[in-house]
Amino acid sequence: MLRYVFRRLLTAIPTLFVIVTVAFFLIRVAPGGPFNQERGLSPEIRANLEAQFGLDDPLWLQYVHYLGNLLRGSFGPSYNLPDFTVTELFAKGLPISVQIGTSALVLALLLGSILGTIAALNQNKIADYSVIALATAGSTIPTFVTAPVIQLVFGLSWKLLPIGGWGDGALINKVGPVLTLALPQIAIVARLMRGSMIESLRSHHIRTARALGLSDWSVVVKHALRGAVLPIVSFTGPAAAALLTGSIIVETIFSIPGVGRYFVDAALNRDYTLVMGTVVVIALFTIVFNLIVDLLYAVVDPRVRYD
Amino acid sequence: MASETILSVKDLRVRFQTLDGTVEAVKGINIKVNAGETVAVVGESGSGKSQTMMAAMSLLSSNGEATGQVDYRGRNLLEMTKNELNKVRGRKISMIFQEPMTSLDPLYTIGNQLIEPIRRHRGLNAQAAREEALKLLRLVHIPDPERRMKSYPHEMSGGQRQRVMIAMALANDPDILIADEPTTALDVTIQAQILMLLAELQRKLGMAIVFITHDLGIVRRFADRVYVMRQGEVVEEGDAEALFANPQHAYTKMLLAAEPTGTKVAPPANSPVLLEGRNVEVVFKIGGGFLGGEPLMLRAVDKISIRLKRNQTIGIVGESGSGKSTLGRALLRLLPSDGVIRFGDRDISEADRQAMRPLRRELQLVFQDPFGSLSPRMTVGQVITEGLLVHEPSLTGKQRDHRAVEALREVGLDPNARNRYPHEFSGGQRQRIAIARAMILKPKVVVLDEPTSALDRSVQKQIVELLRKLQADHQLSYLFISHDLAVVRAMADYIIVMKQGKIVEEGPTEEIFGNPREAYTQTLMNAAIDTARFRISA
Amino acid sequence: MTELAVAVPEPIVGRSLWGNAWARLKRNRAAMFSLYYLAFIAIISVFGPMVVPHDYTTIYGDYVRTPPSLSAYPRPDMLQTALTDAIKRMRVDIKEWHQDGSRVIVTVTSKKPVDDRNIRYLDRSDAFDDTKIESKSPDGLEVTMSSAIKQQYFLFGTDNTGRDLLSRTLMAGRISLAIGLLAGVVAGVIGVIYGATSGFAGGRVDEVMMRIVDVLYSLPFIFFVIMLVVFFGRNFVLMFLAVGAVLWLDMARIVRGQALSIRRQEYVQAAEAMGVGYRGILVRHVIPNLLGPVVIYMTLLVPQVIILESFLSFLGLGVQEPMTSWGVLISVGAKNIGYANWLLLFPAFFLVSTLFALNFVGDGLRDALDPKDR
């Protein structure tokens, strides 16, 4: 098991390397630079700034430097928010994004699984159709529609929630963003769960359990659910990586100071280090969560073995 | 026989709601089971025999609905609440199924799954239930039961899983055991063992057994009474001996006569050898790759030599995994192999795709699965004339169509059907289409890979007769691959018995059947012997 | 013998799987309704902007953020304001006004003689038209003018610069649908070619090709899109060709999987055993059987692209003003929810209902082409 984890992490290194390299050169061949946007900058000052950050070196040298810094765990300074290093920006924003993302994920997994199971147990009945309708709505309506609608209904009309803002992490401020973020995930989980549960309930060993007179609880929870949960487990990896690294839409609309907003701004401003930092963080999250999921898989399913 | 009736099915009907409307699978049947007796419900696929018992146990799929009465000791199972039902299921009436590989929960240990029904129905504590479970595993002759308790289903063979399944079903000493085709998915030798076990357990425990089966051999061997079902109705019922000796209904007679009969006369000794393999070897690499480490080498065919003469049929017999299908494909150069393969006077061991192409029309292949081997998006006409596009490209569309009509007639299908699609035909008809596709090219050698295994007995017989007629008409040579000894005996004049990629024994058919020398062949024969005995008496 | 009886009575032409699928689709009411709805949306998006009386770029200064209404503008209570505004611009005083049928009669006074050209100020207002001088006092200090009330309908209201939301929503639909189709087709074509090649070639080639897909998968998707926006700038056709070029990954995986499984099918083995070459297998067996999954996935791809476009436009990276798309409109709506919620609700309804319809069609197609009971 440990050896497997070790091997997986080892094979992640080349992947990470490729990602860093591709991203580095992609953003660097894009026209423009971090200090082109501010018009007031005289050519001398710009040259000075560029020299200060080593941007006048040949590209390959900058690449080598970047890799070197990365190995030492440093993402470098942010070009557009010059008072901060990229690490500091993440230290501030990531916990907020992770909080919201985790809440949304947990909510989605719990609610989605329950709804999906209810639907599967009542296949082709009202409860099932309601869940399907909800899931269709959840997965069809984009977040940039749900977010303002939630603001409109709960914030402006009913005045139950604040329209936006972080409010130092007050619970009431998290409801809107978490709901917006969770809704499509609830839909996906509910659909997955419904599908796999129906399949699981049809499987031969469930027929066996019924033929042996086991209770409904045992048939559904012990035998059907455990098998049905496998697709949810594999869904959780990529979903977690995406949710925990912040959502641009949700953070913009609800004015949440997470890391989700950095990415677009940074890319547009050619804040190279911040873009690269975001890419690396997202890639790391993806790799780690996929590994966790694979290990979880082996816990649920004895047929899966890693040695 | 005079004992009390414990289960009686009265006017049972089962309907299914499908996309194409309501289908009535069981049309008002009556069946009764007396304490301690063995009842067989016999029928071909689609006869409703399984659905009858599924309905009795309330195990129908969600689109199914049962009406009528299923009385167990005077109480109608169909009207019971779930709670009441669950006090009968697994305790008074138990069931085992056809699919030993999937009928156990893959995520729990054998022990866990065995203990659960014991605790549920008898309220024993964990320790006592464990003791009981161990006793059961010993009862069904699972070696090393202590260790097996901790095994997962995927760590056991099909036969062992079926034994575990039986143990679970008998855990609470039921009155009735319903066995739904319990041996169909197993190899012949394992089948025999499971049947022996059931017989032994019935003697020890005294429960009634309801056998649902298509296999008349089993019926004759075990059943006291028989119900013959066809298209949702019971067409005949009665005492087993009487029914076999003197069947009344035409369908029963047909079923009894459905065993393929006759023998194949060997071709004259000077008949030329058409296809020859010398030391043919096929090795599969499993795993490996970029980072996967050492691949596992599986020797599927291990230095086999074979000579197929003109107008000869060689039967290749073996259980699943014996390498018989692989051998057939290697001889047609559809798989890379080592050794020498000759067709006529040509050495084709090294022939590539290009070089093989002109020879393909003389070397044809018919598959087991008549559903998978026909392209679902082509009409029957297109399917059977596809080979002509390759081998007789000069033909016009009209000529091809003409050939299609001929070919369909030859295999006994209505040529008007050539513009229909494969999914509109039954299994037997589809197998005829597959045969027509091979025959249209006028081949010399045809490899028949289990061509009858997926079909009902009565249809099997028709296909066997068709193949025989075609052989006689065109002086064909067959390589007949099968695990079904009855069919092989009727088709082949020479038999090769394979096990684990090697030839165990070979010789003319009468010799192999009359006097098997090797232990493995004897086991195979013994396992099938009741079918054989049955055929003689019929 | 029994089996033969089945095929005989109804010979000649059979129904292909496609025929079956179509029959099944026709029975699916949700899917058929969605299909009609999509056709409806497409038609009004394409032809609507030509029919609607307002151009999607015309700014009505007097009608900023007018709520949607079935009755015509200006409303009676608005006449006063519009009139006062216009008269103020004439630098004259209003003495009296009243409405006479579809015209207003207004009498103005001034300390200087009123210049006749002043009536253009009334015509310039979005509420009035066809202004005429009815009578003039001899000293020219008092003039009576009449002006037709310009009846305007804003069924969806107007946006915060006074543009008709109906024509803008329809125009936006045109853009969003066109982009969805365009980028969807680009992604589909690339995905099918890549996936089919990989799946059909198999072995080492397949391994390498899929490895590349894996790496592309692990790059943050939004990063790619933003880079493309940066590269292609504001040329939205080019940009969405590029977006299509990013979205092919799923399609490639699906097609590869299908191609691999089709290759393993017995009917392909049967064709190989008959000596059919690669091309014949590809044309007669692989492609026809691939079509189903490809069609199903295309119906998923198109809404994906529409959402992506809206998303980019929402961020201000997509379509640029005055051109518009549903995403642009929704983003404007989201910023104005406090005082003009119709700006959010109408475009959101169009976008969401279209996505729903595509979704139902996709589901319907999947059920029709790939029914579990076969």
TrEMBL record, chain A:
ABC transmembrane type-1 domain: residues covered: 94-297
Matching InterPro entries: BPD_transp_1_N, MetI-like, MetI-like_sf
PROSITE patterns given in the database record: ABC_TM1
Species of the source: Mesorhizobium dulcispinae
Alphabetized Pfam families for the sequence: BPD_transp_1 (PF00528), BPD_transp_1_N (PF19300)
Subcellular location: Cell membrane
Signal peptide: none
Family designation: Belongs to the binding-protein-dependent transport system permease family.
Topology of this chain in the membrane: Multi-pass membrane protein
First-listed, main subcellular location of the protein, grouped into a coarse class: membrane
Protein name: ABC transporter permease subunit
Assigned keywords, A-Z: Cell membrane, Membrane, Transmembrane, Transmembrane helix, Transport
Domain of life per record: Bacteria
Chain segments annotated as transmembrane: 9-30, 96-119, 131-154, 174-193, 228-254, 274-300
Membrane among keywords: yes
UniProtKB/TrEMBL annotation, chain B:
Residue ranges constituting the ABC transporter domain according to the UniProt record: 7-256, 275-525
Gene Ontology molecular function, alphabetical: ATP binding
PROSITE patterns: ABC_TRANSPORTER_1, ABC_TRANSPORTER_2
Keyword field: ATP-binding, Cell membrane, Membrane, Nucleotide-binding, Transport
Cellular location(s): Cell inner membrane
InterPro entries: AAA+_ATPase, ABC_Ni/Peptide_Import, ABC_transporter-like_ATP-bd, ABC_transporter-like_CS, Oligopep_ABC_C, P-loop_NTPase
Gene3D superfamilies: P-loop containing nucleotide triphosphate hydrolases
Topology class, membrane: Peripheral membrane protein
Tree of life domain: Bacteria
PANTHER family: DIPEPTIDE TRANSPORT ATP-BINDING PROTEIN DPPD, OLIGOPEPTIDE TRANSPORT ATP-BINDING PROTEIN APPD
UniProt xrefs under NCBIfam families: PRK10419.1, PRK11308.1
Similarity-based family: Belongs to the ABC transporter superfamily.
Name under which the protein is recorded: ABC transporter ATP-binding protein
From TrEMBL, chain C:
Keyword entries, A-Z: Cell inner membrane, Cell membrane, Membrane, Peptide transport, Protein transport, Transmembrane, Transmembrane helix, Transport
Subcellular location: Cell inner membrane; Cell membrane
Pfam families in the cross-refs: BPD_transp_1 (PF00528), OppC_N (PF12911)
PROSITE patterns: ABC_TM1
Segments forming domain ABC transmembrane type-1: 173-362
Membrane topology according to the record: Multi-pass membrane protein
Transmembrane spans: 34-52, 175-196, 208-230, 236-255, 294-319, 339-362
Gene3D superfamilies given in the database record: MetI-like
Family label: Belongs to the binding-protein-dependent transport system permease family. OppBC subfamily.
Name of the protein in question: Oligopeptide transport system permease protein OppC
Top-level taxonomy: Bacteria, Pseudomonadati, Pseudomonadota, Alphaproteobacteria, Hyphomicrobiales
